[in-house]
Specification:
Blueprint (H helix, E strand, L loop, with lengths): L14 H47 L2 E2 L9 E2 L3 H7 L4 H30 L6 H7 L2 H4 L2 H11 L6 H8 L16 H25 L4 H9 L4 H12 L1 H16 L3 H6 L11 H11 L3 H31 L1
Antiparallel strand pairs: 1-2
Length: about 325
């Protein structure tokens, strides 16, 4: 007798089950994306309301005649506002003052910031107290700091002049904020004093991530303090330093209140920068069109500058 082997029933692939198992996964993923977009909406709303809309409004106003007190002067201007700004007798001097104010401030802040950060990173007694004290200039309001230094630098009762005369460094009190030769440099010095603690705290945080084993190995190999700093420490602070410098270039270039509190752009416009010139256009002459044109030009200058730096950095990394 022949024995028959029972045939196995052919089973169809369970495609329906696979699709059923995938549906809930894709449903959850779609729901997660929707929730993420909903969480982003408030930030997007504030970005459009507080940044994009005002920025576009400034660019739009720069191509129109617009006066705060006389609405009859509103009309299309084309490039006339830009021509008016460029032909202003104070434009090029204000541009030069802005460059000097920005470059010297950022360089001085970084120099003092890196020195103080390295000092506060050493194992010293009372280090925590000094770390707390050094941040005081940064947290003092700009108006308070500006007025305080204005009083300290006064030629008749300022404590700075009294000290310098007693030390024999100067023969008589000097009007640091009232002389053409020293006004801009004095304001820049005060700005460095106020802003360098931000560099100190940021660079001090970056120093916590520097490899101590690498520094100790370099010291064992005979590398001196200077070599260890420039070859090991400073390169590891590159990312923090670049961010700090870029942010402070923007903050310093557009700074208005500090110079205005101390000198109001004087004497004889020797401390007038582009932000103060914008203020004069808008709030003194009520010419919003010219003020918007100058603000748009400042935005363009910074965008072009940062773009050139980015292109140079990208080409350097490729090479």
């Amino acid at each position: 007798m022949e024995t028959r082997i029972p045939e196995k029933p052919v089973t169809e692939p369970a495609t329906s089950n696979v699709s059923e198992t995938k549906r809930p996964y894709y449903g959850r993923e779609r729901k997660t994306r929707l929730q993420a977009n909903l969480f982003v909406l408030p930030a997007l709303f504030f970005f459009v309301l507080l940044i994009a809309y005002p920025l576009l409004t400034v660019v739009w106003d720069s191509f129109h005649f617009k006066n705060l007190v006389n609405k009859a002067l509103h009309s299309f201007a084309g490039l006339d506002n830009y021509k008016e700004v460029i032909h202003n007798e104070n434009f090029w001097s204000s541009l030069r003052h802005t460059a000097i104010w920005t470059v010297l401030s950022v360089a001085g802040e970084f120099f003092l910031g890196i020195i103080s950060a390295v000092a506060l990173n050493q194992p010293l007694k009372g280090r925590a107290i000094f770390r707390g004290i050094i941040i005081i200039p940064w947290v003092v309001p700009i108006v308070v700091a500006g007025l305080t230094w204005q009083w300290m630098l006064a030629p008749d009762f300022g404590i700075i002049n009294i000290w310098l005369v007693k030390l024999g460094l100067i023969d008589k009190p000097y009007y640091w904020l009232g002389e053409v030769q020293t006004a801009l440099l004095t304001v820049t010095f005060v700005n460095i004093w106020r802003s360098f603690p931000f560099y100190t705290i940021s660079l001090l945080a970056g120093l916590q991530g520097v490899s101590k084993e690498m520094i100790e190995a370099a010291a064992i190999d005979g590398a001196g303090v200077t070599v260890r700093f420039f070859k090991i420490v400073l390169p590891q602070l590159k990312n923090v330093s670049v961010v700090l410098i870029f942010v402070h270039i923007i903050w310093t270039a557009i700074n208005f209140d500090f110079i205005w509190v101390m000198t109001e752009g004087g004497p004889f416009n020797t401390t007038e920068t582009l932000p103060i010139m914008i203020y004069r256009y808008a709030m003194k002459e009520y010419d919003v069109g010219a003020a918007s044109a100058l603000a748009s030009m400042m935005l363009g200058f910074m965008m072009v500058g940062f773009l050139l730096v980015y292109i140079r950095s990208a080409n350097k990394n490729k090479a």
